[in-house]
Fold:
Amino acid sequence: MPELPEVEALALDLRGRLDGRAITRIHVAAFSALKTYDPPLSALEGTLVDDVTRHGKFLDIEASGLHLVFHLARAGWIRWRDEVPALPPKPSNKSPLAVRVVLDDDTGLDVTEAGTKKSLAMYVVRSPPDVPGIARLGPDPLADEFTIDVLRAILESEGRKQLKGVLRHQGTIAGIGNAYSDELLHAAKMSPFKPANSLDDAELETLYAAIRGVLGDAVDRSRGLAASELKSEKKSNLAVHGQTGKACPVCGDIVREVSFADSSLQYCPTCQTGGKPLADRRMSRLLK
Structure:
């Protein structure tokens, strides 16, 4: 799933490619992706791209006062095309193509979604907060306004909720997903199940530094990369997420996993839980 660093890098890459360009056509191959009807999709035809920005994990292409907003969900991605086919794409359940944006010189963007679970979303709005998901976003963890006092207030208000879930909730903190919540908790040497309001002042400072450091470093590594390079860059720099069974790069212990219905988390017992494996009830049931 693209998270804050990848979407930030996508916005930067596309800003350079799209600035001042005209959108001539938009073809929707997966009609379930379009979530709005006013303004109509046709209102974007002939508009000039003014900027490309990010709101949490939402990508925002601003064109002549309108906003074409994408949420790439779990399996979405954006691919640049140096040449767009002359014929519009046909709707097909077998094709990953969801949306094609055609520019004034017949270059463009293909917005794709792998797999059968279609969650990718596209919005055409007059203002970003018109997208419900953007209106509900919490503070951006890399913004100047995200201070340690803001984090303290968030954790206190979340009570005994587990840190992993608090960090992932977009209405609490914007942009952190499954992968980077694993990574920053590993950097902070904290259990994903630690209660949010149980941190002392030293632990709060450690977690805040991990949030800013892990995300900031990922953004710096991704800056300047083309969209086609971002996925491999992310995977090559993950310490624990997706690394089940491998050695922790910090202590050498084996990275372990806790599985849920539709996701999983990874962690290092030595670094994060005092050497004790976390209970994985789903796997325990399978082994009985």
User: Anything to note?
Assistant: The chain is about 30% helix and 20% strand. Residues 148-287 form a domain with the Helicase, Ruva Protein; domain 3 fold (CATH 1.10.8.50). Confidence is low (pLDDT under 50) at residues 283-288. The longest strand covers residues 49-55.
